[in-house]
């Protein structure tokens, strides 16, 4: 049974909203903080500081409209999972908007069985989540590159590649089960022998060029490369509704599609839709409501729900405006249209 209650009121407000990464919520005046956890690959062994992949990623995102502060990097050449965990004790209690994790190559190099690695990787992943301002939604994992395809590893290429494949399968499986974004850069590293300029001068680690290719892959796998912030100042008539929650249906979604869903018409159309449809309930509360939903193959939306809310009134308004959206352009993966989850961050702020 569903019923509605309508209330009218007029006020001058600023509605600030964001088309977000599933885990990023940028603010044009407050830089996002970024924590990169890892080993030699994250610290950028044998490349210049500004050529490390987390640095390249932050710089490229800043060029596309983001404001990201210099990454905090906790990584060291030779670190295993246990050493990374110990090092993160130094930042106990600190939270970051973005957290990346790339760990495990030294566990593999020391011949640790993949079954033993599983629990250790989980511990590192949980630690990464604990430092994320958005929990799981603020974390992404990068696969372990294949050093078998380097001058250092080519004599034992088959064994190295086989072990790393098992390690990466473990990482990916855990990420999928936890709803964590997993980005596979390993195929890029496997071009190291046919493209020598992808390997650093030490004959083992990736070059700045290879890290740049990682960054391109990471950007493509993130839901959006740019998060515009839209601010609209207008006098509005507030309308909000109470109703029964729609039943949740289990849809088989692709967690990391090649192309994420897109609001039909892009950011300009999204801005127009929100300006014309989002109302501010009669409340003095402010904040950001995170709404998650599934964009189905036909572009319609399903399973619209709050993953982080403020008050019932603001939550209900965010749910309403999303449920009434026109069809989206659905996600694509391997050339096929697929179901995919998407998260919108909708910020409500009064004009003081």
Automatic annotation (TrEMBL):
Its main location: membrane. Residues 1-26 form the signal peptide. Gene3D superfamilies: 3.30.1150.10, SGNH hydrolase. The keyword Heme does not apply. It is found in: Cell inner membrane. GO terms for cellular component: plasma membrane protein complex. Residues 283-350 form the TonB C-terminal domain. It comes from the Bacteria. The keyword S-adenosyl-L-methionine does not apply. Residues 36-211 form the SGNH hydrolase-type esterase domain. It is a single-pass membrane protein. Keywords: Cell inner membrane, Cell membrane, Membrane, Protein transport, Signal, Transmembrane, Transmembrane helix, Transport. GO terms for molecular function: energy transducer activity; hydrolase activity, acting on ester bonds. InterPro entries: SGNH_hydro (IPR013830), SGNH_hydro_sf (IPR036514), TonB-dependent_transducer (IPR051045), TonB/TolA_C (IPR006260), TonB_C (IPR037682). It holds the Pfam family TonB_C. One of its GO terms (biological process) is protein transport. Belongs to the TonB family. This is TonB C-terminal domain-containing protein.
């Amino acid at each position: 049974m569903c019923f509605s209650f309508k209330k009218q009121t007029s006020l001058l407000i600023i509605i600030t909203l964001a088309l977000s990464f599933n885990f990023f919520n940028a603010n044009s005046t407050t830089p996002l903080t970024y924590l990169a956890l890892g080993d030699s690959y994250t610290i950028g062994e044998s490349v210049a500081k500004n050529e490390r992949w987390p640095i390249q990623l932050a710089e490229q995102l800043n060029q596309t409209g983001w404001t990201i502060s210099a990454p905090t990097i906790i990584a060291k050449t030779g670190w295993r999972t246990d050493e990374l965990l110990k090092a993160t004790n130094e930042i106990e209690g600190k939270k970051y908007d973005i957290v990346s994790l790339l760990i495990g190559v030294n566990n593999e190099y020391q011949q640790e069985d993949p079954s033993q690695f599983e629990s250790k990787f989980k511990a590192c992943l949980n630690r990464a989540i604990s430092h994320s301002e958005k929990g799981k939604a603020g974390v992404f994992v990068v696969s372990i590159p294949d050093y078998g395809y380097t001058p250092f590893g080519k004599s034992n290429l088959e064994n190295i590649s086989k072990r790393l494949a098992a390690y990466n399968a473990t990482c990916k499986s855990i990420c999928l089960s936890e709803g964590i974004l997993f980005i596979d850069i390993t195929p890029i590293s496997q071009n190291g022998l046919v493209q020598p300029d992808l390997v650093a001068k030490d004959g083992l680690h990736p070059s700045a060029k290879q890290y740049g290719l990682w960054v391109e892959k990471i950007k493509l796998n993130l839901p959006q490369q740019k998060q515009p912030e839209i601010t609209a100042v207008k006098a509005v008539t507030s309308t909000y509704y109470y109703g029964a929650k729609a039943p949740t249906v289990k849809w088989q979604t692709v967690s990391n599609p090649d192309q994420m869903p897109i609001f039909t018409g892009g950011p300009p159309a999204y801005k127009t839709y929100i300006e014309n449809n989002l109302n501010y309930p009669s409340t003095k509360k402010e904040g950001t409501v995170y709404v998650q939903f599934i964009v189905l193959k036909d572009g319609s939306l399903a399973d619209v729900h709050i993953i982080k809310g403020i008050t019932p009134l603001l939550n209900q308004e965010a749910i309403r405006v999303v449920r009434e959206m026109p069809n989206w352009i659905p996600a694509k993966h391997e050339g096929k249209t697929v179901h995919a989850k998407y998260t919108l961050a909708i910020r409500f702020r009064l004009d003081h």
